[in-house]
Hints:
The protein has 75 residues and is mainly α. 85% of the residues lie in helices and 0% in strands.
Amino acid sequence: MAAHENLAAGLIGGGGALFAAWVAANSIVQQMRLPLLAREEDRIEREGPGARDSIALIWAIDDELRKANGNLAQC
């Protein structure tokens, strides 16, 4: 067993180093994604009112069509 102490220590140390590198890589990826998420939120805020207006228009058209209820003389 004494002959393998250095091997065991090296494997444990290597595993710890790989784990530390994985944690660092995850942190870097998260920091890189933050500006992308911020830009996406800005885009949604810019385009959101237009989408809401479009939905309101569609609902208004739907209401008018339901009121007509197949009566083409009203259209």
